[in-house]
Amino acid sequence: MSVLSILLFLLPDLLKTGGAAPRTVFALELYPEAGRSAPVAQAEFVAPMLDLVREQSMVSFRREMLLLAHASTQRSAPSSCARGSHPYVVVAGDTLSAVAARSGTTWMALASFNHLPDPNLLQVNQVLCIPDSGVPPASVDLHPQPPGWASGASTAAAPYGPPPLVTVEERDLTQQLFALINQDRAVRSLYPFAWNATLAGGARLHAWNMYHCGFSHSCPDGLAPCQRIAAEGIRYSDCGENIAYAGPYPTAWAGVYKIQESMIEEPPTGWHRIHLTSTTLQRIGIGVYVDPTGYIWFVEDMAS
Questions:
Q1: Does residue 89 contact residue 74 with C-beta atoms inside 8 Å?
Q2: Nearest Cα to 205, choosing from 180, 229, 181, 182?
Q3: DSSP secondary structure of the chain
Q4: Which range is least confidently modeled, 65-74, 130-139, 233-242?
Q5: Contact 277/190 with Cβ under 8 angstroms?
Q6: Which of 56, 261, 266, 298 has its CA 20 to 30 A from that of 148?
Q7: 49 touches 8 (CB < 8 A)
Q8: Beta-bridge partners for 299
């Protein structure tokens, strides 16, 4: 029995795509039965194969055109983003992480802000709302010492010494919290809080103190939050403080995010919510301390 090897080259015009599609090669080995010549075998096997390939190519081509047509109908309606945010139209290749990074926020905060059921699914031409407020500028010291600390004249209570230097993880959590807080405010058509380095220094000190003296607004010396803020040299007509303690489950940010969102979702009479949605407070400082076990202590100090 002879063997007939045939190479079938399908050129772009055969595929009917109209574009510069790559050449497709099919290798066939035909085994003609006794008494059948190679030309007969070619006529019986190759011609039907070509018809089949043409048919499948056109089916694939029609399917791609249908998908493109479907995608073209997925354009989102004109954006109705809340005041304090602006629309962004998703383009091919976008991911939520990439969009968040370019916008100075995190994918988790952006997913929450846009109420996305699945952050992994973005459609071309989908409109995302991006809060105008971002994270603290890179030039802002996320761990300033309260006024007078270096000279020894500070009135801040620090029986456990000054807090350690901010780690990269703590810095990132601080920035993510700041972005999330202002995004939650933008959703409610509220102005963004302004970052205040002095409040941030006092907040970080209190987070460090709580790690030693317990979860309390008044530890270690019994002073109320507004008394501590005044001792830092902040003048105000209104002030507030939120304190929180989160486990790193499944990640540090996931744990912090869950606690933070539980505060903003309190009933209208909840003090955490009152502070976070205030129309009299304008400045905020956030302090984060991650203890040796991975648990996160964080403090949000606010003032008018």
A1: no
A2: 229
A3: ---EEEEEEE-HHHHT-SS-PPPEEEEEEE-PPTT--HHHHIIIIIHHHHHHHHHHHHHHHHHHHHHHHHHHTTPPPPP-PPTTEEEEE--TT--HHHHHHHTTS-HHHHHHHHT-S-TT---TT-EEEEES--SPPTTS-SSPPPTTTTTT------TT-SPPPPPHHHHHHHHHHHHHHHHHHHHTT-PPPEE-HHHHHHHHHHHHHHHHH-S-SSTTT---HHHHHHHTT---S-EEEEEEEE--SSSHHHHHHHHHHHHHTS-TT-HHHHHHT-SS--EEEEEEEE-TTS-EEEEEEEE-
A4: 65-74
A5: yes
A6: 298
A7: yes
A8: 243, 287
Q: Provide the CA 97 distance to its chain's centre, in angstroms.
A: 5
Task: Please report the pLDDT score of residue 16 as a whole number.
Answer: 43
pTM for this predicted structure: 0.57
pLDDT in tens, 15-67: 444 444 444 444 444 445 555 555 555 555 555 655 654 555 554 444 444 43
Mean pLDDT is lowest, of 21-30, 84-93, 242-251, for: 21-30
